[in-house]
Specification:
Blueprint: H1 2-10, H2 13-18, E1 21-22, E2 27-28, E3 30-31, E4 39-41, E5 46-51, E6 69-75, E7 83-93, E8 97-102, E9 117-123, E10 127-129, E11 135-137, E12 141-146, E13 154-155, E14 159-160, E15 163-165, E16 176-180, E17 188-196, E18 207-208, E19 211-220, E20 229-231, E21 235-242, H3 245-264, H4 268-278, E22 280-285, E23 291-298
Parallel strand pairs: 1-5, 4-6
Antiparallel strand pairs: 2-6, 3-13, 5-19, 6-17, 7-16, 7-19, 8-9, 9-10, 10-11, 12-15, 12-17, 14-15, 16-20, 17-18, 20-21, 21-23, 22-23
Length: 307
């Protein structure tokens, strides 16, 4: 994380002004191999994505609840079978206000919501103002980030092996997201930025706001993935999705076992024993068509350097 901060601090104002920028109107509603790229970047190039929010499309609420993602971004040298690394260098919240929504039939309280509604809240550099009395510390994160799947397009409202609507609170400044590449150029897209969200996103909506993301993409063959991997300063996190939480946690735990067996030189039995005592299972969200779980394992316990 400190390295990423140093990168941002080293970027001069005139460099930001000349950095490639993709505006929020360049968006798609699906991760699809048929989407033409809106921006092309070289590996290691730093660029900006502007992202919309529910308030951007509030005139069409509640149809606008499933937000599009800004992109696609074509990454040079990104080939199927390799892995795309996306560094989240900076999340700049730009609107000063955000929306929290409630929709009948959606989320943990679905049967108790009678009509679609939304609440507009404000925020500053440190807190979200939930109301006149409640101020909650700001915790910006990226809700959607993914690549194009190999054949049929997938809605930006759900998640899968391509990433997508993962809603992982750890995808914040200083994190890296590793994604398997399925098509030439990867066709990465991101959006659905939140000023604040709790793990689980229990009732459909985070504090949804507009932003500008500063990102950097690299291509690597150092690790081959079938599902996304999130890396923070302190943890690696394998990600699973499914129709049920059980389906999701099986994917996350199986992928974590493979990594620990590889990097720690353990057999399967020792690996799962280590996971049971050192890897935390966390719920990403329970409100999307595919629910999500992640397994978080301390980087300090990896047997050899990975990242």
């Amino acid at each position: 994380m400190n390295f990423f901060n140093d990168v941002i601090m080293s970027i001069k104002k005139d460099e930001v002004l000349t950095m490639k920028f993709l505006s929020k109107d360049k968006h798609v509603h699906q991760y699809s191999p048929d989407n033409a790229p809106s921006l092309t970047v070289a590996p290691g190039e730093i660029f900006q994505l502007e992202t919309p929010s529910i308030l951007t499309f509030i005139e069409t609420f509640p149809d606008s609840v499933v937000l599009p993602v800004t992109g696609p971004v074509e990454v040079q040298n990104a080939e199927p079978g390799l892995t795309l690394k996306v560094d989240i260098l900076k999340i700049e919240l730009t609107a000063g206000e955000a929306a929290i929504t409630a929709i009948p039939g959606k989320g943990a309280f679905a049967d108790r919501i009678s009509r679609p509604s939304y609440k507009v809240v404000t925020y500053d550099n440190t807190h979200v103002n939930f109301n006149d009395d409640l101020k909650i510390p700001l915790r910006p994160m990226v809700g959607k980030i993914g690549v194009a799947p190999v054949k049929i397009g997938i809605s930006s409202g759900t998640s899968g092996s391509h990433g997508g609507n993962m809603d992982i609170t750890d995808i914040t400044e200083g994190a890296s997201v590793y994604l398997p590449i399925f098509v030439q150029g990867a066709l990465m897209a991101a959006g659905d930025v939140h000023a604040l969200m709790a793990d689980g996103e229990s009732h459909l909506s985070a504090v949804e706001t507009e932003s500008v993301l500063i990102l950097r993409c690299d291509v690597t063959d150092a690790i081959r993935l079938t599902h996304p991997l999130v890396v923070t300063q302190s943890h690696i996190m394998t990600v699973g999705e499914g129709r049920t939480l059980e389906e999701a946690y099986h994917i996350a735990l199986d992928d974590m076992a493979k990594i620990i067996m590889d990097y720690n030189g353990l057999d399967f039995l020792d690996a799962v024993m280590l996971i049971s005592n050192a890897a935390d299972l966390k719920i990403n969200q329970i409100v999307n068509p595919m629910v999500g779980v992640r397994a978080a394992f301390p980087k300090a316990l990896l047997g050899r350097a990975m990242f």
